[in-house]
Amino acid sequence: MIPSQMPPKKVLIKNGCVVNATGQAQHDVLIANGLFERIAADIPAPDNCDVIDAAGCYVMPGGVDVHTHFNIDVGIARSCDDFFTGTRAAACGGTTTIIDHMGFGPAGCNLHHQLEAYHGYARGKAVVDYSFHGVIQHIDDAIIDEIPSMVDAGISSFKLYLTYLYKLNDSDVLRALQRLNEAGALTTVHPENDAVIAQRRADFLAANLTAPLYHARSRPPECEAEAIARMINLARLSGNAPLYIVHLSNGLGLDYLRLAKARHQPVWVETCPQYLMLDERLYSREDALKFILSPPLRDVREQDALWCGINDGAIDVVATDHCTFPYQQRVALSGGDFSRCPNGLPGVENRLLLLFSAAVMSGRISPERFVSLTSAMPAQLFGLWPQKGCIAPGFDADVVIIDPKTRTTILHSELHDNADYSPYEGMVCEGQIRHTLSRGKKVFSLGKFTGIAGDGRFLKRQPFNYSDT
Predict the structure, then answer these.
(1) What is the reported pTM?
(2) Closest CA to 459 of 215, 154, 170
(3) For residue 2, what pLDDT band results from cuts at 50, 70 and 90?
(4) pLDDT-based confidence at 468, cuts 50/70/90?
(5) Rounded CA gap, 264 and 88, in Å?
């Protein structure tokens, strides 16, 4: 039998603490044919088996990052991470599945236009498994009629924007929410009040206030919170359509979402490490353009409110909104003017370790809650369950092994994205990513990337059907 015809080796992970969202136990994990085959207290190593010793480590489901922007064209620039460098960075940080938010296409294009474009961007490049969120940039009868065929193609979530070039008005949002609900799709939304942004930006520019701090001042917390409240009510008026708020950055918006949850409205909340770890004082630095993103970084009081939501369960998912524009490009394009700087931060490689260190190792949350935030809940909400997000027989063998006893200093020189900086440069994390396995295959091991471009599969996601079970 020639090597390419040899059956794949089994993988046995020994002596680790296996953590799912529902509990943890000292178990071994046997992987065969890319799936979890057996989880038990003591599994003897079968023949033709690779053994990974995870003594003293947590063995967790590979991360599911449901908010990335690879290869996105924002008009003035294209993000520098494509589906190879972006998923390579993800793999090296313990993330084994990404769902990318497709960017806008040409004016008037149909929904499948961007889907086909993004299939082309990712095909043959992705290191780990991936899917896409649909993007709705205008509403008419043709778009409404096209939604079910997108769901049939495995795109069971769509993004609406309340700001930017292709913002939707309230009547369009109502039509979209209702049809997406009927078609079995989850509506995700970028919630900022466009009129507020436009007015405040114009006022600042007229006063020649163009420093990065005024990016944050032009998009205050109330601007985001108002749009969140409006979306909650529009979703309620659209047959109680399920609603997912992306990249929450402020406490007032979280208060509105708590009210909606209290009356059993189907709403879910995502935040990102940058809103938990960074704050607006960075806009006073000489290199403040590195931190331009929307919504912007907030005051530490908003940060504290988000941590309360992490601690008490009001926040459901931690994703990244990874969208990378090099610092030197930001400087060249903007000339220091915040209004001409492309928005977004890198971070897909750092999400798991940052949250593990700041939340699990600090005692803020349990390892089980960490798995829920970073893997299990994203998989359940976005049609990937029971394939992703759990270490159990029959699930894809996606694994991250984290050593809690070793410290890691984040240095961009050691990261694997295509940016020229990290917003977390120099931060010391309690913990270290030891291994990442994607469907049983090592894609990162002991500090080295071991994945292969094209090994990642497109995931045709199931229609939205979340249940607490």
Answers:
(1) 0.97
(2) 154
(3) very low
(4) low
(5) 39
